């Protein structure tokens, strides 16, 4: 493959696409982009897999493929692993569509909704899980999709969500969609391309040269692959900061845990002679949790920051924006930053360990390569340098530097993945018997790697789904009403079964909220959010927190750790719906505000889904309780405030102020003067006018829905 840039006009065969690219300032194509065009990106409708380093322009390949579909009268879909990345891709595609005269939309939630409104969109940006749900629900517009771009296609090997990517691809192949896979750290790109029946563009070209090295703690020296050595007697990270200050560039330092990332940021701030008082002042004016402001203000004032998933979204965006704007000199981070955010720096220090479930584990080669790819800012740096900070020996460091990423292997073989997708294929009528189910599974990477063993495992999953009363098997495979509901709600069949098993023998009126909140935290669908130290000996003392008469579910399969973890989630959520401030919750339970957001979002959906499932099975008391609790978790309020928080500009704090002042219902608010509302809530009169008007609209809608 050539390593020189190519002019757009000399490579792009479709004039309209060339015009759009040039209007956006793209006049030259990078080598992987030009090679993709030569391999048929615009001249054929064949599938394509592009594997090249971070910053080599893979996203544009996907955008060009989508633009080709739009010009042919079809829709283009761009899939990403995270909501935060979806927002970034939406903004980029919005600029492209504005120039091309098309419409882009984004969808990342509402898993039980077919979203027919998306029929008006030419380009759709979605997370993996959202598009998987749409393929199950089969909205009327799904047949007009021409191209599906799977960004970070190497996530097909991710233990948690790889099976979702795999089934998306299998369904897309079955429907005849064009599939464009984009990846940076793939050890077996040829196998992925063969699975997708795709042309392969494989390149190690980078816009900025990468130099790799490691730190020898014994010699207090950085050893680079190109033969250079640098003495760092003060310790690696302090040396890197001082060097960056001297030579005016930025550094990114990955540590294996949040605790170490925050501690390192404070250490660096204490030796930094640079000041960013204006940035610290900006931090004070942001609408972010006070606990985060207090923790970050000092390090930010020294042009240093830390970044991890425990921070609120607003704080993470502030750090990212400040680093991209070259206002921060150094950022310390956990590996989650490398997976979700593109923040390049001249020098990157990488810990090849990760703290997970109470243990420190070694990273995979692929994870190291992902972080190493952040070294070097295109257009700003002549080269990028990555330094392994904690290798136990030179041999270990060189193994990470010189080895290719591990091969991507299917995770569809897991029991959880097979029961989820077997039910979804039957419920969506894509598989009506064992033969058609097997034929679709033959389009998966799992079948390619496991062969007939996959079919045997699917038959076992079928028997389990029969026992759960979700599938009627025989010559024909049919979903029960329960099975169809479960897959439309996008939950694991085992989650639904657990909820029903625990609730069907218990009267809804006899249970406290903590029972429901702990129960959904025990299900396999609840994410493994970081909850701090959990030890079995804490279980008894934690149980004593429960009020008299309260109970929690104690399934026979769960050990003390599972129960304690679920109970801690339940207590966090109970405080949340009792309107305890998020700062207080974070400090009380030792979690980050970002963790609280994940807990709340996950619980809201699982409570809603559990309520629908209970309704289908005739457990009406539980269905009602769960539906109400879902709304309370969504808004973070007691039940008496649910009416008021529907109103524009009225959140949990303002709703409580209104109730304390005697304005307790929509009717009360609709009949209140904007001046009084403004005074009570501490808002402007204009906002108060809009709130009162919205309350009147909601009240009218409520009355119009009542039977005459």
Write a brief structural summary:
The chain is α/β, with parallel strands linked by helices. It has 32 helices and 21 strands. The longest helix has 24 residues, at 593-616.
CATH class label of the largest domain: Alpha Beta
**Main sheet makeup:** 8 strands, mixed
Between the first and last Cα atoms, what is the distance in angstroms? 73 Å
Structural class: alpha/beta
Q: Which outline best applies?
A: globular
Percent of residues in helical segments?
Answer: 40-55%
What is the average per-residue confidence, as pLDDT, rounded to a whole number? 92
Q: In the residues, how many domains can be counted?
A: 5
Uncertain runs are: none
Q: Please give the order of strands in the largest beta sheet.
A: 12-11-10-19-16-13-15-14
- The value of Rg in angstroms is 27 Å
Strand percent estimate? 5-15%
Q: Figure out the total of helices.
A: 32
CATH architecture of the largest domain: 3-Layer(aba) Sandwich
Q: Could you say what the CATH topology of the largest domain is called?
A: Rossmann fold
Instruction: Give the quaternary arrangement of the chains.
Output: single chain
The fourth-level CATH homologous superfamily of the largest domain is P-loop containing nucleotide triphosphate hydrolases
Number of strands: 21
Task: Explain what you see.
The strands form 5 sheets. An 8-stranded mixed sheet has the order 12-11-10-19-16-13-15-14, with helices on both faces. A 7-stranded parallel sheet has the order 5-6-4-7-8-3-9, with helices on both faces. Strands 1-2 form a two-stranded antiparallel sheet. The mean pLDDT is 92. Helices cover 50% and strands 13% of the residues. It has 708 residues and is α/β, with parallel strands linked by helices. It has 32 helices and 21 strands. The chain folds into 5 domains: 6-202, Rossmann fold; 209-402, Rossmann fold (3-Layer(aba) Sandwich); 415-473, no CATH class; 493-636, Sec63 N-terminal domain-like fold, CATH 1.10.3380.30; 644-705, DNA polymerase, domain 1 (Orthogonal Bundle). α17 packs across α20 and α23 crosses α27 (593-616).
């Amino acid at each position: 493959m050539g390593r020189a840039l190519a002019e757009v006009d000399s490579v792009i065969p479709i004039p309209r696409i060339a015009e759009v690219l040039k209007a956006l300032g793209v006049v030259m194509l990078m080598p992987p982009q030009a090679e993709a065009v030569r391999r048929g990106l615009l001249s054929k409708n064949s599938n394509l897999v592009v594997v090249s380093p971070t910053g080599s322009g893979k996203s544009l390949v996907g955008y060009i493929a989508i633009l080709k579909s739009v010009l042919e009268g079809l829709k283009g879909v761009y899939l990403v692993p995270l909501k935060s990345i979806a927002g970034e891709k939406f903004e980029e595609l919005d600029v492209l569509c504005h120039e091309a005269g098309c419409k882009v939309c984004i969808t990342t939630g509402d898993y039980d909704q077919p979203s027919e409104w998306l029929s008006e969109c030419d380009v759709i940006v979605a997370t993996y899980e959202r598009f998987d749900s749409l393929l199950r629900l089969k909205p009327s517009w799904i047949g007009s999709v021409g191209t599906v771009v799977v960004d970070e296609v190497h996530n097909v090997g991710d233990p948690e969500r790889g099976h979702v990517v795999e089934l998306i691809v299998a369904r897309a192949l079955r429907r005849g969609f064009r599939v464009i896979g984009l990846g940076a750290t793939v050890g077996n790109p040829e196998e992925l391309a063969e699975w997708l029946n795709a042309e392969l563009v494989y390149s190690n070209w980078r816009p900025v040269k990468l130099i790799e090295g490691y730190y020898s703690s014994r010699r207090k020296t950085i050893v680079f692959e190109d033969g250079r050595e640098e003495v760092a007697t003060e310790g690696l990270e302090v040396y890197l900061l001082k060097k960056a200050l001297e030579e005016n560039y930025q550094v990114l330092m990955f540590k294996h845990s949040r605790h170490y990332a925050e501690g390192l940021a404070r250490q660096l701030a204490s030796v930094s002679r640079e000041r960013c008082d204006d940035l610290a002042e900006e931090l004070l004016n942001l609408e972010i949790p006070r606990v985060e402001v207090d923790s970050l203000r000092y390090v930010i004032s020294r042009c240093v920051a830390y970044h991890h998933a425990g921070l609120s979204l607003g704080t993470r965006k502030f750090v990212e924006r400040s680093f991209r704007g070259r206002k921060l000199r150094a950022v310390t981070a956990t590996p989650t930053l490398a997976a979700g955010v593109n923040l390049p720096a001249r020098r990157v220090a990488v810990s090849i360990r990760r703290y997970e479930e109470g243990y420190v584990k070694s990273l995979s080669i692929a994870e190291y390569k992902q972080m190493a790819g952040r070294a070097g800012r295109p257009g700003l740096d002549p080269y990028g340098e990555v330094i392994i900070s904690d290798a136990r020996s030179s041999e270990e460091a060189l193994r990470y530097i010189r080895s290719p990423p591990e091969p991507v292997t299917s995770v569809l073989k897991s029991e959880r993945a097979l029961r989820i997708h077997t039910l979804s294929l039957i419920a969506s009528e894509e598989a009506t018997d064992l033969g058609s189910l097997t034929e679709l599974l033959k389009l998966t990477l799992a079948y390619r790697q496991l062969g007939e063993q996959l079919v045997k495992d699917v038959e076992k999953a079928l028997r389990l789904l029969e026992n759960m009363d979700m599938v009627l098997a025989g010559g024909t495979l049919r979903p029960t009403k329960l099975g169809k509901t479960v897959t439309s709600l996008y939950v694991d069949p085992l989650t639904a079964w657990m909820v029903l098993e625990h609730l069907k023998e218990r009267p809804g009126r006899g249970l406290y909220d903590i029972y429901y909140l702990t129960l959904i935290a025990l299900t396999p669908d609840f994410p493994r959010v970081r909850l701090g130290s959990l030890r079995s000996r804490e279980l008894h003392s934690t149980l004593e927190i429960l009020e008299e008469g309260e109970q929690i579910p104690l399934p026979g399969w769960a050990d003390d750790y599972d129960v304690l973890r679920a109970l801690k989630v339940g207590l966090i959520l109970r405080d949340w719906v009792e309107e305890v401030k998020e700062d207080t919750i974070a400090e009380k339970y030792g979690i980050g505000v970002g963790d609280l957001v994940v807990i709340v979002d996950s619980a809201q959906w699982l409570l809603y889904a559990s309520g629908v499932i209970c309704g289908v099975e005739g457990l009406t008391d539980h269905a009602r309780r769960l539906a109400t609790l879902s709304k309370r978790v969504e808004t973070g309020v007691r039940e008496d405030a649910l009416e008021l928080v529907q109103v524009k500009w009225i959140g949990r704090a303002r709703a409580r102020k209104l109730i304390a002042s005697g304005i307790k219902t929509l009717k009360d608010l609709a009949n209140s003067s904007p001046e009084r509302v403004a005074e009570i809530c501490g808002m402007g009169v204009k906002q108060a006018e809009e709130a009162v008007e919205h309350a009147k609209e909601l009240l009218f809608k409520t009355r119009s829905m009542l039977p005459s």
